[in-house]
Fold each of these.
Amino acid sequence: MSQASPQPRLRLEPWNDPASVPYIRLLEVSKSFAGQTAVDRVTLDIYKGEFFSLLGPSGCGKTTLLRMLAGFEQPERGRIEIDGADMSAVPPYRRPVNMMFQSYALFPHMSVAQNIAFGLKQDGIRKQEIATRVEEMLALVRMEGLGGRRPHQLSGGQRQRVALARALVKRPKLLLLDEPLAALDKRLREHTQFELVSIQERLGITFVIVTHDQEEAMTVSTRMAVMDQGRIRQLGVPAEVYEFPASRFVAEFVGDVNVFEGRVVRSERDGTLIHAPAAGTHVFIDRGHDVAEGAACAVAFRPEKLALALEPPAERAVNVIEGTVFDIGYLGDMSIYHVKAASGAMVRVALANRLRLVERPITWEDRVWISWAPGAGVVLLS
Amino acid sequence: MNGESRAERRRRRLVVAVPYLWLALFFLAPFLIVLKLSFAEVVLARPPYTPLIELLDEAGSLYLQVRLNIGNYLLLFSDDLYLRSYLNSLRIALVSTAITLAIGYPMAYAMARAPERARALLLMLVILPFWTSFLIRVYAWIGILKNEGLLNAALTGIGLIDEPLVILNTDWGVYIGIVYSYLPFMVLPLYASLEKMDLTLLEAAADLGSPPWKSFWSVTVPLSLPGILAGCLLVFIPAMGEFVIPDLLGGSETVMIGKTLWAEFFNNRDWPLASAIAVILLLLLVVPIVLFQRQQAARGSEFGK
């Protein structure tokens, strides 16, 4: 499922090293609820120290997959291994796995310190050690001095940090995070994403996070799996999934995209030419695809990869769409131009607002030409 | 509170006044009458007690005479019949509350964890006995428990016992009657607190290494504590003053304060003494009632957002 990275990287990538052994293995795992398939033959390897994201729309099976790793659900078929051990007969309370719940699930009748200590108490650890480890955890999540508070006396962000501390204090082999930041506001969420990554790198614990927020998945993860209808649709590092979506579903789910239906005119080793009547142009993409001439396909463009000009580009017959500016969405850091192509299609172009916007060089009703580099588009065959 | 307008404050006071008015009219006023009665003396008259305050005309001078008879209270503490009645009631109420909790908790737990569609039906079944008169239901137990009753007939029928079990007119009969009658008052608050419990908390406990039976004691029971307390008080308080059940199912040696009070009031027509018994009973019950109120208030501030 994973394709070779487009260029060599310097980072440690155990998934590209045939000698490395996966830490968590899911083999043909399936699960259904009342006849409804939730997870459909998922096979997945996760390596030690990864920050792995399961991304998908609600109901795609990502949470069920996470709950199977925690042991709250049993797979109907298939097998789950953690650190070489088969988990099928292991109940949740004996798994080397801890989970941070979406609702945080803090015990309301216990103080913050008691919440964090709960897991250690189950292991019969001495009181003194429990106290030191709880203090360590409080320091890690920057909650020193708040150990005596009750959960209902904390803010949302503080509860989130207590939940994280409680899940980390047992030093699990695997930490599962179920939409951990969904309840936080945007600014706090972005801040916490970076904090999560730094904690994960410091402790070296393998994280698996479930999220429906593609920005979050791309920010935090080493690799991500995009799921839909119980299946993994694409697996890869964030940049790979974003730049080379394998299907129309992935392209549209991860990031913003313009998609046009078309037909392959010809495909060679170093390029593919597609006729896209919906866009009113021919599209040339600098990657070869193994497809027959005349085959139906789609081309996708990220809005930020398109250029907008008031003049037609010189001597170019392909990769150009002519149209008029229909609407402009001003977002501060950038503007989204909705351009109505001559063919009738609406194309979104994102332009960074580098200079302070006083007078728009391109404005409503302007006649414009959209163009892009051969490397900007992606051919989607499914 | 400062930003409130006058009209708003007046409206709020009006709303608060309704329950206070209710309590004053139907609780405080009767209590004051009973309190007044308890300081009177018994006389053969109608009404059978002396007035506390009298206007006397002695040799042309008018006197306002207030006579408080504390003899009733002294008698309560000197005659051990009353002390025994109080203690016996306390014992029977405590034991019945414990048995009711032991039976009610698993019931409420099973109901709260039953499929959602079944819950309404189960709740109905718990409330169903209320549709028949309490008195008739207690009478029915006589038919079940007496020596030649249904229970003994069934047990001898299947050969489990040769001699009939003597349950009626013993303390056992009283326990069975109280537990049966007050079980719904235990089950309902327990059900309410168990049903609204967040089940992810149990998953969190399991995730942190706690097996189910341990999670029950460390999570479920503490979180249902408000329900346990409410249920226990709802059983204990009325059981303490229970009259009908010990009278019908208990024996002559089962002395409970409710029965003693009844005897003083109706058999001996000693209204002042009966009132004194009632006042002391009320004072004894004020402790658990205040506890209950405190807990309800604390619960309101902690969990009600």
Amino acid sequence: MLELKNIRYDVDDNKGRVEILKDVSFTVESGKFVVITGPNGGGKSTIAKLIAGVNKSTGGQILFDGEDITEKSITDRARMGISYALQQPVRFKGIRVLDLLRIAAAKTLSVAEACEYLSRVGMCARDYIDREVNDSLSGGELKRIEIATILARSTKLSVFDEPEAGIDLWSFQSLINVFENMRKEIKGSSILVISHQERILRIADEIIVVADGRISKHGPGSEILPELIGTQSAVNSCDKLIERS
Amino acid sequence: MDNIQKRILEEVADLHDVPEGAYNIRANGESTGRRSTANIEIISKPEGNGIDIRIKPGTRNESVHIPVVLSESGLKETVYNDFYIGEDSDVLIVAGCGIHNCGVQDSEHDGIHRFYVGKNARIRYVEKHYGEGDGTGKRILNPGTEVYMEENSYAEMEMVQIKGVDSTERLTTADLGKGAKLVVKERLMTHGSQSAVSVYKVELNGEGASADVVSRSVARDDSYQKFDACLTGNAPCHGHTECDSIIMDNGHILAVPQLEAKNTDSELIHEAAIGKIAGEQLIKLMTLGLTEAEAEEQIIN
């Protein structure tokens, strides 16, 4: 389904050339739920952006269903079947939740159909469908709408960048349920999630640990998770709250 | 009506055929179709420069369409349309003006709409302005809207200038009585070397009156926009005005929100923001499958 081959990503900053990703290769097979974890600043979000086409790699190749997409635009990749949920969802004044879901689904969804996607992310749909995707929504609400847009697209590959970031504990519980359900209904598609959350790591078929721009571990979830418990790569939600306070 | 006129009618009033309910269609300075209903009467003014629309008290769930089409180059007209909305009624009013000018002379329609909204009455007013045609003559629209609102009345006004209008000077005034509520949603897009000025003067005169005047606009190419909204609180009241503009290319935008309070219990707020389209908004829409141009269109529409 998705293959990254020897991916490099360098940026220039005021100290000179910085290597963000040094030689990253992995494959996400069809029907798999794969979680990328690892310490902050290790390059995880960069991988998600390179897959979606938001950033362009400085070396290596990305293949999607066997086709080289390394030089393809964000739009081309989206149309080929890659979805990407941003870590920090974007706000849009003047665009309603319904409009965003319709764009995502690429058709004129009925209100009932759009409501269905919102219900699946634990939102009382009627309260939200006509609201604008603006500052009046909380971080947790935006995050759930972001995930609903990915559900509405229902593409072959869905990439989620830290879905748990910036949301409250209550929203977090329902978010985990959303991912557990996605895992059950995965069928021929694949899901790639960047997360530190133990409960998301627990449902992973495979776990990839990225640190300092390289893959340090990659294997079945059942093998890798026990090695991560108690480290920064697999925290539970309470630890995260303590860390913030 | 010819094909050009029909197409314009579709742009400004979403009409493919004659509308249901009461209507008056004005094309090139003349009424080309009219229907009154049992509750809504449309009468020509004796001076011949407009119409009176009288809505009986208690009229509910009915609509009035009064679109205007100009397809002759060089036509200039000023039209007065007065709406008398009876107590306890609840109606939809759809106006709109489209100009097709492929000649060298300027075409201009200045529509003055006066609304007398009776006690406890509710109206929703939708107005779209549009211009087209490849002539050098300008397409000019200068609408004047006056709203007089009695006790506990409600008016929602959606005023949209889609594109193609070279010059517009819009003046909206409102006088709100006790418990009256006015909601204005203005959307404006200018391009080329167009100029658009929109002025609001809202007087909150009765206790518990409230107004919410929101403008969303986009200035592209070398166009100029001025948004000037003044809310005056003369009684215990609530007022909010907001101007949110997207600037592109060599656009020029002037936002002048103003508040004036003459009563210690008037609560008035204004917000104004001008900025370009955020790159992250374009990226998000592109990840949903839109091209960059489609994403831009989505944001500004």
